[in-house]
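Bit of a strange request maybe. I'm writing a small parser for structure token strings and I need a real example to test against, not something I typed by hand. Could someone generate the tokens for this chain?
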Amino acid sequence: MDDILPDFQRFLVSRGLADQKHAPFYARWVSRFIGFSNQHEHAGLEESKRKFLDNLACSSNITDWQKDQAADALKIYFEQFDPSSTVCF
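Reply from user aminoacidic:
Good idea to test on real output. This should exercise your parser:
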């Protein structure tokens, strides 16, 4: 595990949602989303998630499995780990 959202990484591993090797990648997607959403403060959470994932879909250096992993990471983070989060950190 690394320093990016360590509580989230521990949550993923403890719940069997990701193994220790992949948990940092899920945390990085959420971290990237937080940075993205802070630049689009006028959008609500759902709109920000949609825009973030659309942005990834247009990126030629992001593969389909990475886009799916990013979507899963956001879903887990906002629906299971921190459902009351408003993204503003």
